[in-house]
Amino acid sequence: MRIVALANQKGGVGKTTTAVNLAAALAAKGHRVLLVDSDPQGNAGMHLLGPEVGTYEDTIYQVLKGDIPLRRSLRSVPSVAGLSLLPSNITLSGAEAEFLSAVGRERLLADALATLTEYDYVFIDSPPSLGLLTLNALAAADEVLVPVQVHFFALAGLSILWSLVDRIKTRVNHKLHISGVIPTFYNAREGQSLEVVAKLRQTFGPLVFESVIRRNTDTAKAAGWAEAVVTAAPDSLGGQDYVAVAEEFLRRRVPEVAES
User: Fold this and answer.
1) Per-residue pLDDT tens for 37-85?
2) Which of 2, 86, 171, 225 would be 36's cystine partner, CB 3.0–4.6 Å?
3) Between helices 132-140 and 158-171, what is the axis angle to 10°?
4) CATH value at residue 34
């Protein structure tokens, strides 16, 4: 079972959309996939199951508290056979403070996922912060994918994330490594997009995906239908790009991240 955390402390970079569509694309190819929503906003769940996710009582929050077994909270995604979701909603918002004094607080999610054997891939959508919930995602994962908006300001905080991954690897999770950087909101007609992608490739080399996610409205439309764009509109720009990213993810075996 390959566990992949998607992380970036900056919001609005396409992290949740990437998590949703990677998970859906791999499930559509016949893999058994679990998508874990560890963001209190619950957007990954709403993207796939609709706004009723906000009313769920059995969520990742209850799992992390130890109130219920993980399997009790899992939901099948009707639009994609083979895809399951561990949902989140606003009840998770107080978890950072609540779990602060918990023994092994950074490994609550890792311990819960350790009971699973039936999935090929687990994708964890982490919140846009570097707090306890993101630490749990990194402690549970084998690897990290970093969606990066191709904007100059988006590059500024990457060294902080890199440092956090290094600390988690040293102290908590020795197998953790950054396995990919995915450029998002790309526009080939904008000089800034070209420059930022070039800078990413110069800095991070083979970690940067050859496939990029172009700026498009397709993914937002698909979310409104409570479906991933790779299944709702696979021939759209968004559908094509995320299918390409999923295929590249399956064939990539890149070295562990170098110092940034």
Assistant:
1) 999 999 999 999 999 999 999 999 999 999 999 999 999 999 999 999 9
2) 86
3) 60
4) 3.40.50.300
